Amino acid sequence: MAYRPEPDRDSRPWWERIARKEFAVQECASCGTPRFPPRAFCPVCRTEGCRWREVDPVGTVESWIVSHQPFVPGRLDPYLVVMVRLEAVSGCLVYGNWRSTRPPEHGERVVGAFTEVTGDVTLLDWAPADAGSVHVHPPERKPSH
Ligand SMILES: [Zn+2]
Fold it and tell me: Which of 42, 62, 100, 136 makes a 20 to 30 Å CA pair with 143?
């Protein structure tokens, strides 16, 4: 059995974007404070309104935890969850599964890696930027004339 996130009213747009392999950060419409995970109110000014800002899923490792709890059925324990400081959005920390055969290092550069768990569930994992196997922007194919 695979892990199935349960999108709610506030996080549904996030999961829908991830499923389309798009990465965007929810920002307060009033003061611009980023919200992760997505939520109904700004933690700073309590404004409800928000907008989505598409950015590259690139950042640096802030910290990580090794989970010994079987939160994810079927997953081998322990597993590693990293907290990533986004390069493009000041003050925005996001987290996700670590995807590498080695442990992360504090401050190392990482890129998001969309991981299709099942046909309708996609997660955003994080991998070392120097891994070479993950491309944030695949090169566009230009028609040859
Ligand atoms: Zn605000």
Answer: 136
